[in-house]
Design a protein that fits this description.
The structure is a homodimer. Chain A is 38% helix and 21% strand. Chain A is of the alpha/beta class. Chain A folds into two domains: 253 residues, Aldehyde Dehydrogenase, Chain A, domain 1; 181 residues, Aldehyde Dehydrogenase, Chain A, domain 2, CATH 3.40.309.10. The radius of gyration of chain A is 24 Å and the shape is globular. The model of chain A has no long low-confidence stretch (mean pLDDT 96). Chains A and B meet through helix 1, strand 5, strand 6, helix 8 and helix 14 of A and strand 5, strand 6, helix 8, helix 14 and strand 20 of B. Strand 20 of chain A pairs parallel with strand 21 of chain B, so a sheet runs across the interface. Chains A, B: This is NADP-dependent aldehyde dehydrogenase.
Chain lengths: 524, 524
């Protein structure tokens, strides 16, 4: 399929006088097969107007139609075949196998949200019947969740499919009944165009209103800024840097009518080596740790950037083995030259800390944007002395924190900012100590793992991919899993509404297998 | 009971060098039986530290103990007897019967949240079992909601009991497992002290950690500002003016770690007179409208400040009858002299609009802070011409909007800001027209009523007392009813956690009648 570089504005293809090209980070060259058009302020406004016009027909269409639309997007993405894998791999530097897996995840999560739409539970139906005999009379009240309105979603650099054009936020917003205006990531415009074409086909096939999806691309930050400021946009989904997320939060808060921003921003994802586990299997833990750290050039939000243990010969052995394995890691192509530069800068800052020792480095880079893995060490008592130790270094860099004892380890954990994940390496003999650590983690993170590694994020019902600030801008939400639909909903209640005017699902006996709370009792 | 004027800081009584007195708005005089102590920055910091220290023991105590604590507060409030009713009535100018009703509501809502704590559904338990055969292996994931941390609650001028010291936000936060630091409203410090004494007794009786509740009082805005800025505070509940709410939002957004603010701020609560209903019962509607408008001197957040109808002889008759009834309304004591001044200023601004006609006024005031009801009229086509028409005038003032036809009426509704409520007066012959109006209301309001009046807010499961900006700062939430517990919770997920380390409710088979989502299915 030949790429056109078009913008997708409410079902209409557009071009503009501003253009940019994609890059191949592995080769360090421009990809010259297409010129991509940068959106103007008018394009953004038109996309938002189209989304607003689509809101009522889309959100009031039968749920079965909404579900079929999500499934059609999944089908059309798969129908793009190898062209999608090749393009996404070329624009991101990620291997084809990884992109193929990500495509499966993306289609899978669209289908999961289709099932969630049909499940209907997200409507949170509640009915309190009237009691006219009471003094004063008790009214009839019925509650359901409704969609917020048009949603702006920002593509992520590190997941060109699963967190981008038809990724998690898009799927959750569409499932909730919200049209989406997508700001494509400038690093993979061709991938975004292919996906937008798939959505365009799904819209046509299922007869959805055209404004239900738009794609605005471009290199200028003003595009995203205009999008978040547009009065028709009612919520924002973002995955990226802390600076980027905080900039969008400021714009959203300064609007005449502020809106929620769900920005996933920054995490160093502590791994805690509990003493018995470290003793029993320190070598294996060191190997698995480096594998999790270096996977995908370390470009995961849940990458283990921090590992904590109690000082002693077992921790020395762990550090030595981790250093050995890490030294053998080949340098890997990073997503963009900007990300590569930021990675090198982050490591340099860490090295500049007087408290930090470099334990090991991966192999020398063999190409322009290749990131070299790195492992540092710092004493627990010094960890809080320099805020640079707390900053995420996006890439395969990690810091080992050597704590004097469990008290110091708990103290360091208590001082951490909000995190997406924390991981306990824990054996039965550690359980008492773990019970001191867990309450601290519950206050700080979205997901707590035992004896695993944080870099897999399962798309399912009980997943939380979120966490307190600055892991995300809003710790009350998740960006992965079915609970993500909640972020684009709000409650409305209906008092003494005649049945003819009530939404169907709120009429007596019409809950059709959805769990509803009726007069306080939960009924299936 | 003799009032001491004490501050309540984490179970310790304190005094300070700054003092203030309560006022009796009906007589326009100071109440000289007690000097109240104004909190210093140190008092605020100490209260927050105590709340932080109480968080872990309070949030991890058995749910049955938490429920008993809430019930004990209700019991102790009732045990205060007539002294509470007399004091609250004197400090607010509200009649004793109204305060007695509000006391019943306050105790009732504490007991409702006690049942909600036991119900356990708010934990939103989800379990996805592992599938080790899958490639890659699927982990075991389990999710529950946990409390956010210490919460700051601000007392409201217009509900000295139900939205103040032990009011809705306090009950919801305590039910969620969050300690509360209360900023008492400076208009009713004696009432706040009495309630704080009841909570103090309940803490002692049920053995709760002392920092679970603190009360900081004072006239200075810096107290509330310091409270919202304190890093230990994790969420804010506020009911008051738009300016006050927006000031707190700004402080919360500017923190190094921003936190959610639930501010209920401003609404004009449109009532829509559908043509057939107006024709069939315009006179009765006019009388009921004025009764709802003037109740409690119009000092309800859900007061009907706007009524819309389609121009014609029926609307003329409605306006005439409403004007007649309103003219016979006695002036009523308002809550504070400041609120009375703002009310008079708001009416003056409305009168200054070139598009507005004054239809009627209530009787002349007979005392210093008495508010005089007022009814204005404006043409639908002029309504959007001056933003002054949109501003809430807190008190018994309302604007009749005369629309040329249904299109214009829908147009005016589409332009409204977010509202707590909208009310349809609707007969069967209006249903087709109502179906055009309802989707507009669903986007704009938290609660839609048919054939009632918005000024009663039932405390129950299906209530939404909330709405899009600026009705509240966060339309995803309600401040009344059991769903309010959600505002103080966030999700945490546990991956491959050994049963011995899992929270009890997440172990297999331990859901005890709570609806849980297990492997995607909802089970009771």
């Amino acid at each position: 399929m030949k790429l056109t570089g078009d913008l997708f504005i409410g079902g209409e293809r557009r071009q503009s006088s501003q253009s940019f090209r994609a890059h191949d980070p592995a080769r360090g060259v421009e990809i010259d097969d297409a010129e991509f058009h940068g959106a103007t302020e008018q394009d953004v406004a038109d996309a938002c107007a189209a989304a607003e016009a689509a809101f009522l027909p889309y959100s009031t269409a039968p749920l079965e139609e909404r579900a079929k639309f999500l499934e059609a997007i999944a089908d059309e993405i798969e129908a793009l075949g190898d062209a999608l894998v090749e393009r996404a791999s070329r624009e991101s530097g990620l291997p084809a196998a990884r992109i193929t897996g990500e495509r499966g995840r993306t289609a899978g999560q669209l289908r999961l949200f289709a099932r969630e739409v049909r499940d209907g539970q997200w409507q949170k139906l509640r009915i309190d019947h009237a009691d006219k005999e009471r003094t004063p009379p008790k009214p009839d009240l019925r509650l359901r969740m409704v969609p917020l309105g048009p949603v702006a979603v920002f593509g992520a650099s590190n997941f060109p499919l699963a967190f981008s054009t038809a990724g998690g936020d898009t799927a959750a917003a569409l499932a909730a009944g919200c049209p989406v205006v997508m700001k494509g990531h400038s690093a993979h415009p061709g991938t975004a165009e292919l996906i937008a074409t798939a959505i365009e086909r799904a819209v046509a096939k299922t007869g959805m209103p055209k404004g239900v999806f738009s794609l605005v691309n471009g290199m200028s930050r003003s595009i995203g800024q205009a999008l978040v400021a547009d009065p028709r946009i009612q919520a924002v989904g973002f995955t990226g840097s802390r600076a980027g997320g905080e900039a969008l939060m400021k714009i959203a808060a300064a609007r005449p009518r502020p809106i929620p921003v769900y920005a996933e921003m920054s995490a160093i994802n502590p791994v805690i080596l509990m003493p018995q586990a470290l003793k029993a299997r320190g070598g294996a833990l060191a190997e698995a740790y480096v594998a999790s750290l270096a996977m995908g050039a370390g470009q995961f939000c849940t990458n283990p950037g921090l590992v904590l243990g109690i000082d002693g010969p077992e921790l020395d052995a762990f550090a030595e083995r981790a250093g050995e394995v890490l030294s053998g890691q080949a340098a890997q192509v990073m997503l963009t030259s900007g990300i590569h530069e930021a990675y090198e800068g982050g490591k340099t800052k860490l090295e500049g800390s007087p408290f930090v020792t470099k334990l090991a480095e991966g192999a020398e880079p063999a190409g322009p944007t290749q990131g070299r893995a790195a492992l540092f060490s710092v004493a627990g008592k010094d960890f809080m002395a320099d805020p640079v130790h707390l900053h995420e270094v996006f890439g395969a860099s990690s810091v080992l924190v050597r704590c004097a004892d469990l008290d110091e380890l708990v103290g360091v954990l208590s001082e951490l900012e909000g995190q997406l994940t924390a991981t306990l390496q824990v054996d039965e003999g550690d359980y008492d100590a773990a019970k001191r650590v867990l309450p601290v983690l519950e206050r700080t993170v979205g997901r707590i793992l035992a004896n695993g590694w944080p870099t897999g994020v399962e798309v399912t019902h009980a997943m939380v991919h979120g966490g307190p600030y600055p892991a995300t801008s809003d710790g009350r939400s998740t960006s992965v899993g079915t609970l993500a639909i909640d972020r684009f909903l709000r409650p409305v209640s209906y008092q003494d509404m005649p049945a003819a005017l009530l939404p169907g699902a709120l009429r007596d006996g019409a809950q059709n297998g959805v769990v509803a709370r009726i007069d306080g009792s939960w009924t299936l």
